[in-house]
Amino acid sequence: HSNTTRNAWDELPIRDELRGKSPYGAPQLDVPVRLNTNENPYPLPEALVDRIAERVREAARDLNRYPDRDAVELRTELARYLSRTAGHEVGLANVWAANGSNEVLQQLLQTFGGPGRTAIGFEPSYSMHALIARGTGTGWISGPRNEDFTIDVEAARKTIAEHRPDVVFITSPNNPTGTAVDAETVLALYEAAQAAKPSMVVVDEAYGEFSHHASLLPLIEGRPNMVLSRTMSKAFGAAGLRLGYLAADPAVVDAVQLVRLPYHLSSITQATALAALEHTDTLLGYVAQLKSERDRIVTRLRALGYDVTDSDANFVQFGRFADSHTAWQQILDRGVLVRDNGVPGWLRVSAGTPAENDAFLDAVRELKKEHD
Ligand code: PMP
């Protein structure tokens, strides 16, 4: 993504910081095996599809009215889900929901970032953090990582002390590397961020359910500037639903009310998410299968001679390639779409169904043979 491309909107009086930039977007190509956007490969079970239809039908009768602006029933159920699965008791007042965790993150930056303020992330990481920063007029600071993609605590502390960011993003498990961040590291960065500013620390746990480690949710206790962000796009297999949420001190939930659009979560979205939450146990069963497929991909790739970054997510970073874009194309030529996240030498593959993963492993086995 070069910064010098000519775009159709170049003649429009757009904001200077958007000029010459490219929009976020993974190619949506029509190939047999798509393992490029960390989606859950399992369609929702039929019983859940029926339940969604039922709840949406009920909601449709009230579509002449605006939705529950505070999404009370949904936030209560999300809080119940977190309390049951993430090792810490939270309630309605701790939880806020929006259209995908991208919107949650945008609301956080609208509230705690903005013009004259900065946010930091430790890169490579989820590229939307920097893009949402740009969209909200927040300055962006790229923090360092170790060679093995873990966070270098000392270097991170120094960068935070030097730049005094208003928002610190910690992505665990990290996208695109799959790297989990331990609680000690999060706490060290939280202390550094409070000493420097104080600032908000946002733990993006979009892939939390796939981790070998416990959720970082308990860390919000007694830390009013710590926020945990989650999504139903991955573990709940509901990327099309667009439902993300956060857990934090109730003051944070109150603060984002200042920027949320009124009635931002449609009645249809709320009804659908509530139906999905009724089927949590079935959906978490798919998560367990995906975790074991993820581990199989890691083991098989290493056996084939690839370098693989330890993964706590539903995807795997593998390499290393002299030219990752060429390797991406060669895998695509074999009918498998993976992701080139622009990390030099590395590609990322999402865990799919066993058959999809076999197709991917066949493709990269052939690739290896050609190069040996
Ligand atoms: N955070 C991370 C780390 C992600 O990888 C993603 C999705 N790719 C998101 C947040 C946003 O997901 P959604 O808006 O679908 O909740």
Characterise the protein shown here.
It is a single chain. The protein is of the alpha/beta class and 372 residues long. It has two domains: 26-44 and 282-371, Aspartate Aminotransferase, domain 1 (Alpha-Beta Complex), CATH 3.90.1150; 61-278, Type I PLP-dependent aspartate aminotransferase-like (Major domain) (Aspartate Aminotransferase, domain 2). Helix content is 40%, strand content 14%. The protein has eleven helices and twelve strands. The strands form three sheets. Strands 2-8-7-6-5-3-4 form a seven-stranded mixed sheet, with helices on both faces. α6 links the parallel β5 and β6. α2 (72-85) packs parallel to α8 (267-278). The longest helix is centred in the last third of the chain and has 24 residues, at 280-303. Bound molecules: 4'-deoxy-4'-aminopyridoxal-5'-phosphate (PMP).
List the helices and strands and how they pair.
Layout: E1 33-34, H1 46-60, H2 72-85, E2 95-98, H3 100-112, E3 118-122, H4 127-135, E4 139-143, H5 153-163, E5 167-171, H6 183-196, E6 200-204, E7 226-231, E8 244-248, H7 250-256, H8 267-278, H9 280-303, E9 307-308, E10 315-319, H10 324-333, E11 336-337, E12 346-350, H11 354-371
Parallel strand pairs: 1-11, 3-4, 3-5, 5-6, 6-7
Antiparallel strand pairs: 2-8, 7-8, 9-10, 10-12
Helix pairs in contact: 1-8, 2-8, 3-4, 5-6, 9-11
Would you summarize the structure shown here?
It contains 11 helices and 12 strands. With about 375 residues, the chain is of the alpha/beta class.
